[in-house]
Each structure stands twice: as C-alpha cells, then as structure tokens.
C-alpha cells in the first residue's frame, strides 16, 4: 500500500541512492512530513498539483510522508493508488510506520484510562476510539450513533455497544466538539485532569494520545530512524504546532490561524509551493 516496490527492490534502490549520493555529495536527500487534513486532503479530495509535486519530489530521491492525528484506517483508503508514503506518523505520534507499513514505534493507551476519559466527556461531545483494528464509535444509550459520524471524511468506522466489544490496542481517541471554543476548552480540561493523556486541538476536533506523544515527538523519532539532523514539515492548524517546532524548514499557509503562522518559518499558498521551495534549496 505504501510503496510500489517490494522489500528487496526497495533495499536495492536505497543502496543505489546511497552510492549515488556518495558520488554526488552536492545532492542530499530531503524529507518532508505533511499534515493530512487541511494541508494535503481537503473535504475528501487531493489537489492534483500537490500530488504532481510530491511525485516529482520523490523522483529526485527525496522522501515524503504523513504526520497526522488520524489513525491508519483514516488515511489508508484515501492514499491507496494515489500517493506513495515513505513513512507515516499516525495518531499524533502514537504509531509510526515505515514505507512498507512496518511498525517503527507504537504507544498504546491503557484501556481503562481511555474508558475513563470517554466517560468524563459531556454528552454533546462525540468520541471515537483509534485502535489497531480500525476506528470505532460506541452507540449511545438510546441506541443511536454519534451525529458527527455523518461528517467523517474517508474514515471508515465500526459501531459497538459494550466496552468489552472494543477490539485491539488503543492508540488514541478523536473527539468532536462542534465549535472551536468548546474544543479548546475541552482539550485544556483533558490536559489538566489526565496526567497520562495529551490532547491537541484541531479546529473543532481534539486528538488525544498518550502523554509524551505528539507530532513533534514522532518527527524526533523519525529523525533518528533516518539518521537525519533535520526534516521539513508542513501543517495548517493548532495541533501542527509541535510538528512545526520540530522541523526545519517549517511551512504553513497564509490562511492558517495567526498563532500557527507565528510558529512556521515559511508561509506558502499550497503544499506544492512548499515542495517547490524545498527542492530549490
């Protein structure tokens, strides 16, 4: 799903690239980690110019991957056949995969802690469990599913009724708060109340992961894995601030909130423009 090559072919290509870089030291591999929603993926669609520039970037020997609060089930179908990811930082750094989908790192939530969090939420806040088996939502007491399920973009979900029916390891939770003010207040409450958890606001959504996990944490682990001092990054919202702080150069958009623009080194109009600038460096 993540590469057009099998492992043996990928290793051969990687060795060839290493040899080429030794012969041409003026050319070095660059890596860009991109947020998904609002940066690469817009209301269920990719921009053709972004995809074209990503392919050009990779053909030049560079690497492109995702750094998102979404779980694997939330991006897999969308990128299938359209985008080759050299890595994926998922669930706000709680799960990191290589080009072939192999796990480089994972940090699971304690199930009782996850259930305690969901039980503490206001009834008007919808919540979804991100697990190793997919994304799940729990039926309400009246038997209905959360209203926000109808607006989930490219995230297939399954429904369960009792907590003991929830399968797999839990990497995080996604909360829907309807308004940005409510999302900000709820994220602050979670961070004050739960020492083991960390909440990140993403507009009207909140991404929750194990304390210590973040997009920035994922970037630092990826740097070690790739043996690189710097990785470039791009994101558009509040939960991308840890990503922007840990990458260089860091990009955001003219349309991003002012607090996000202040954290980025370069402000651009599109992901394609960021890639173009990165290839010029």
TrEMBL record:
GO molecular function: magnesium ion binding; phosphatase activity
Record flagged with keyword Hydrolase: yes
Domain of life assignment: Bacteria
Presence of the UniProt keyword Hydrolase in the record: yes
Keyword terms: Hydrolase
GO cellular component: cytosol
Entries under Pfam families matching the protein: Hydrolase_3 (PF08282)
Name this protein carries in UniProt: HAD-IIB family hydrolase
């Amino acid at each position: 799903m993540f590469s057009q090559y099998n492992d043996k072919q990928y290793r051969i290509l990687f060795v060839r690239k290493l040899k080429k870089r030794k012969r041409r030291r003026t050319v070095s591999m660059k890596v860009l980690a991109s947020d998904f929603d609002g940066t690469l993926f817009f209301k269920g669609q990719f921009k053709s110019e972004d995809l074209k520039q990503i392919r050009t970037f990779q053909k030049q020997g560079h690497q492109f991957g995702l750094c998102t609060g979404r779980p694997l089930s939330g991006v897999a179908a969308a990128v299938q056949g359209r985008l080759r990811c050299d890595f994926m930082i998922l669930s706000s750094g709680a799960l990191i995969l290589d080009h072939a989908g192999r796990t480089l790192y994972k940090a699971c939530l304690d199930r009782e802690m996850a259930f305690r969090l969901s039980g503490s939420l206001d009834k008007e806040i919808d919540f979804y469990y991100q697990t190793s088996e997919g994304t799940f939502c729990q039926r309400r007491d009246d038997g209905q599913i959360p209203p926000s399920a109808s607006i989930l973009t490219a995230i297939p979900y399954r429904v369960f009724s009792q907590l003991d029916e929830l399968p797999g390891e839990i990497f995080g939770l996604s909360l829907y708060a309807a308004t940005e003010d409510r999302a900000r207040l709820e994220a602050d409450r979670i961070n004050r109340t739960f020492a083991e958890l960390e909440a990140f606001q993403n507009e009207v959504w909140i991404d929750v992961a194990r304390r210590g996990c973040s997009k920035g944490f994922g970037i630092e682990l990826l740097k070690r894995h790739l043996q690189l001092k710097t990785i470039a990054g791009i994101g558009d919202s509040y939960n991308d601030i840890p990503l922007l702080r840990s990458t260089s150069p860091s990009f955001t958009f003219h349309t991003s909130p002012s607090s996000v623009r202040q954290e980025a080194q370069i402000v651009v109009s599109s992901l394609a423009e960021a890639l173009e600038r990165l290839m010029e460096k």
